[in-house]
Amino acid sequence: MKKIIYTILIGTIVLGGAIYLLLSNKKQNQQETALITQKNDAISVKVDTVKRITPQLSYSSNGTFKPEQELIVTPETSGTILKIMVKEGDQVRKGQTLAYLKKDQVKVSYQNANANYENALENYERYQRAYKTGGVTQEQLEQMKLQLDNAKSSLENANLDIEDTRIKASINGVINKKFVETGAVVNTGTSLFEIVDITTLKLRVSVPELQVSNIRAGQEAQIQLNVYPDTTFTGSVSFVAAKADGSLNFPVEITLQNSQVHPIKAGMYATAIFNFSSEEIHPIRVISRNAFTEGLGESDVFVVKNNQVHLQKVRTGRNLNNQVEILDGLQVGDVVVTSGQINLEDQSAIQIIQ
């Protein structure tokens, strides 16, 4: 009898232990399943940390140099090129003769105009003498004076035509291109020479709206060229566009006096650096621009806390290339979502990926 009771007691203990183990395993399995489910429900995101930096108040933009003055020389009258006095690469001065046109026909016109003027002058002097003796009336004298004035005007025009057969430079510069040869027949508007003056150069660059408000005419700009890597040039802002171009950037021109030691050619590629002056530069808090998306307001970001995100309103300041200044709402060290926001809402579970 005692043996039977002992056997039953042992069996009860074993059965209870088995049941306890089954229940423990079930609870553990449920916890593991919940953890896996939670991980599967978590949204993968990339993050960045709010940092404190000292901003570099400058902006750079690339462009190419253009001459301050360039001109296509055209003749004032039609004719045939008689002689060319310059070649490509020659330095010329304003008023210097570049070429001559044949002036045979123009010369004949000048001789006729001169003869008409001499005849009109002689007639007018004769009428003056006759008027003093009563031989002609005041009206006849005035009519002869009008003829003299017309003849003089025709002579002056003929003299200008003679002068126009001499093609002259109207600016200082270099003959960059010669378009004609001796013997060519040209008309008014025919391109003869291209003159380029590179004693002063212009560098045109494009500046986005976020920086253009800091640029003023007369402001200095540093200029760097690949051909002179160890030299920095200094120019002056001469023009800031009042209207943006098609790409929503603002054209800005910088004027630079050419250097004899390091001569610059029109068309050379250069980088302009605008240093924005500040009396005192303080460290600022910044986050990646990617923390703001089109799906959020410009002052809303997702902040990560305990594997969850919380929608946080912030007050922003300046845009510094790919970073945004934070004035209020975040502290240094806060972690914000920079990729994956489209799938998030307030208190969403997240999983950070690299």
Task: Describe what this molecule looks like in 3D.
The chain has helices spanning about 1-40, 105-130, 140-165, 210, and strands at about 45-50, 50-55, 60-75, 80-85, 90, 95-100, 165-170, 175-180, 185, 195-210, 220-225, 230-240, 250-255, 270-275, 285-290, 300-305, 310-315, 315-320, 325-330, 335-340, 350. It is elongated and about 175 Å long. By secondary structure, it is α+β, with helices and mostly antiparallel strands. Among the domains are: about 45-55 and about 280-350, conserved putative lor/sdh protein from methanococcus maripaludis s2 fold, CATH 2.40.420.20; about 60-65 and about 195-275, Beta Barrel (Elongation Factor Tu (Ef-tu), domain 3), CATH 2.40.30.170; about 105-165, Helix Hairpins, CATH 1.10.287. It starts with a helix and ends with a strand. β18 (about 315-320) and β19 form a beta hairpin. The strands form 5 sheets. Strands 3-10-13-12-11-14 form a 6-stranded antiparallel beta barrel. A 4-stranded antiparallel beta sheet has the order 2-15-19-18, with no helix packed on it. The protein has a 4-stranded antiparallel beta sheet with strand order 7-6-4-9. The protein contains 4 helices and 21 strands. Pfam families: Beta-barrel_RND_2, BSH_RND, RND-MFP_C. One of its GO terms (cellular component) is efflux pump complex. GO terms for molecular function: efflux transmembrane transporter activity. InterPro entries: Beta-barrel_RND_2, MdtA-like_BSH, MdtA-like_C, RND_pump_MFP. Keywords: Coiled coil, Membrane, Transmembrane, Transmembrane helix, Transport.
